[in-house]
Design a protein that fits this description.
Structural class of chain B: alpha/beta
Strand content of chain B: 5-15%
Low-confidence stretches of chain A: none
Number of helices of chain B: 33
Distance between the termini of chain B: 67 Å
Helix content of chain B: 55-70%
Order of helices and strands of chain A: EHEEEHE
Number of domains of chain A: 1
Radius of gyration of chain A: 11 Å
Helix content of chain A: 10-25%
CATH superfamily of chain A: Ferrous iron transport protein A (FeoA)
Largest sheet of chain B: 6 strands, mixed
Number of domains of chain B: 3
Distance between the termini of chain A: 13 Å
Largest sheet of chain A: 5 strands, antiparallel
Bound molecules: guanosine-5'-triphosphate, magnesium ion
Shape of chain A: globular
Strand order of the largest sheet of chain A: 4-3-2-1-5
Oligomer: heterodimer
Shape of chain B: elongated
Number of strands of chain B: 9
CATH topology of chain A: SH3 type barrels
CATH architecture of chain A: Roll
Strand order of the largest sheet of chain B: 2-3-1-4-5-7
Structural class of chain A: alpha+beta
Low-confidence stretches of chain B: 1-19, 656-660
Radius of gyration of chain B: 30 Å
CATH class of chain A: Mainly Beta
Largest interface: A-B, 32 and 40 residues
Amino acid sequence: MNLARLKPGQKGTITSIGSIGPLKRRLMDMGVLVGEEVKVLKVAPMGDPIEVSIKSYNLSLRKKEAEGIAVEVAG
Amino acid sequence: MSTQLKYKDEESDGEISGRSAEARVITVAVAGNPNSGKSTLINAIAGTRLHVGNWAGVTVEKKEALFDFGGRKIRLVDLPGTYSLSPYSQEEIVARDYLVHERPDLIINVVDATNLERNLYLTVQIMELGIPVVMALNIYDEAQEKGYRIDGKAMEEMLGIAVVPTSATRKTGLDQLLDTALRVADAPKQRVPKKLNYGEDIEVACDYLAKSFRTSYPALTDSYPQRWLLLKLMEQDSHVMRELDLDDLDFLDQALHHLRKAHGEDIESIMADARYSLASGLTREVLHKPELRPTEITEKIDKIVLNRFLGIPIFMAAMWLLFKLTFDLSAPFGAWLGSMTDGPFKRWASALLTPLGAPDWTVSLVNDGVIAGVGSVIVFVPVIFAMMFFITFLEGSGYMARAAFVMDRTMHAIGLHGKSFIPMLLGFGCNVPGIYATRTLENPKDKVLTALLVPLMSCGARLPVYVVFVSAFFPNNSSTVIWSLYVMGILLAVLMGLIFKKTLFRGEAPMFIMELPPYRMPSLHSLCVHTWEKGKHFLYKAGTYIFAVSILVWFLLNLPWGVEHKRDSYLGQAGAVVAPVFQPMGFGTWEAASSLISGVIAKEIVVGTMGEIYAPKKEEQAEVPTLQEDLKEIGVSFGAACSKAVKTLLYLPVPEEKEKDRSALKQALLGVFTPLSSYAFMVFVLLYMPCVVAIAAMRQEFGTWKWAVVGLGYQTALAWCAALIVYQGGRVLGLGG
Ligand SMILES: Nc1nc2c(ncn2[C@@H]2O[C@H](COP(=O)(O)OP(=O)(O)OP(=O)(O)O)[C@@H](O)[C@H]2O)c(=O)[nH]1
Ligand SMILES: [Mg+2]
């Protein structure tokens, strides 16, 4: 399962971050780390990007980037 | 503020040492995450008017504020916000370079108390620099409203730095922050932040690296903060490696070898994990959140604003409403100013000048040149200010980031991302800050492309042109017509983006990662201050180069000396040469052509020049009102304008006034343009080459003339084509000609 496939309202725990280089670094600097819980809040009007809540703030990112983030859906 | 977090005076450790310490200017860098309130804090402390807004990346350049506190001189340096000291975009590099290379006496780390963990991740990195740090636990008011309890005392102990809760918007905790800052600055040795333990593996590797590095590069160890440099080397930070010109360090590989093996991950991840575990550990210790979390207002608003189906229509409707309000509210005041410059001011100028023995031509220079030219622009000051007010509101509310979110898909199609939309929205106020705001884009290609598209956003200076024409030709749907021009600007930006993407800027679409801040209600005071900051620039322009150009235009209209018809003047002749170019668009008159030529300096000059060209020949006044009558009339009509504006705001019916429009310019335009050709003219003004200031800004931002010239060229071509299509298309459709 990856973050892009979660529906709004669904939560998951990050198990790996597939991206590399500066993008990965940026994601980590913004708190997107393995073991972190994310919740998808919204999908933008035209289906992309998505808004997620992580470390008690809201972050938006594109599905393409979200696809690289593997998550495990709780329960 | 009720607080358990007062910074306690630890047995007075710093008698200020001698007079020299007092005379010294203390340099304090203000650093922190984007949108944590750094600029607001400096504004509150030093009384500056730095640009603030509720989205990440408002400040893109370092700004300084010098002020006195307790008899000491303090220089506050506002830095762009950054998520970490490994910069990603250009404005973050500015912040990092300042902190690393300029070595301020003290760093005030502004931390968003509602978003503690991510902010502390930066704090941990700032502490690596070995510069004394004081933490401003800002936005404390919101944290309290949410029911957060933050144990600042514990935080002080764990980090070894002073923590002061503040609210920059409510101006609480500021004196305490400064007191603390001074105390720390006076005893820097005792106040160097603790060295935080990053875990045994990292520390061992770091120690090993320290030894080898010190022997191999003794000179380098002094020019950088020690621990920070070692950690960056371990992360193989590309900026540092490039700055130091280090490529292969075999001892680095040895130091990292064990670390890599033990963790099975890349070093960057290991380091980020180490820092974040410190930040989360700390957060767990000091932050107590309430069990139940009520649905927040931000979620409720976003449900509507970011709705899958309503999002884009709402954006368009919000824009339309914005123009309607701007226009309706300011129109009465504009008309009031217009009646003043047209009537009393000219009479007063003649009354003043004639007795002084001024020759006729000076009176004409003042009346038909300066007052007609500057006056026609001044009339639009209310519209411009109203517009700036709404833009300031959008900036402060948090909608900017939402607009970026909603528009990202569209922007993606043209090879940009949603964040590029923010410079464009700013461009609606003035294109110049829009061009500078492209700095927040990570990718140089995006920056250039966005900056090329920003001038298609209709800025405040173009409003005067629209307002004159719209009120003459489309009095009943004025806001809709103006709105259509703004929308046309956006659509053409999308189109041009597509074309550029296919030609000049081929390649991968950039990535898009952006924080969405909570909505906030800007205070009326800050709205007014920042509206003024944006709007005063137009007043300044009116007083300086619009004034100068008005005089120049007057001369060009009256030379060679004693010309009978303005058409035969130099300006008239120049206009007549260019005019045929505009023939197919329906405004091939020398008047239109010469206004467009002078409008290259600044677009509102188009109106100023027209004001001069169409200035009526000496008014045949039946009876001249006295000064008292004039003053009374001005007062009365101002009152009427106010009541009209209030009524429009409340949607009360405004009595249809039979008042014939006295503006000479409007009358003249009605005689030369048709509704269709006036629309084509407005389209042309919207699109043709950016004003000289915008061109200079592009040149400065990109360090070459290349992109400024590309912008100038494509826009003028686009303007010509678009106006042609509008005019000829309109004729085919039978909309008159
Ligand atoms: N409630 C509350 N809001 C605040 C406080 N301080 C700042 N804000 C708001 O937070 C937003 C961001 O403020 P800025 O001063 O622009 O933030 P910044 O840190 O300079 O941001 P960048 O320049 O983007 O790095 C604005 O909407 C402010 O009104 C505070 O103490 N309390
Ligand atoms: Mg700022």
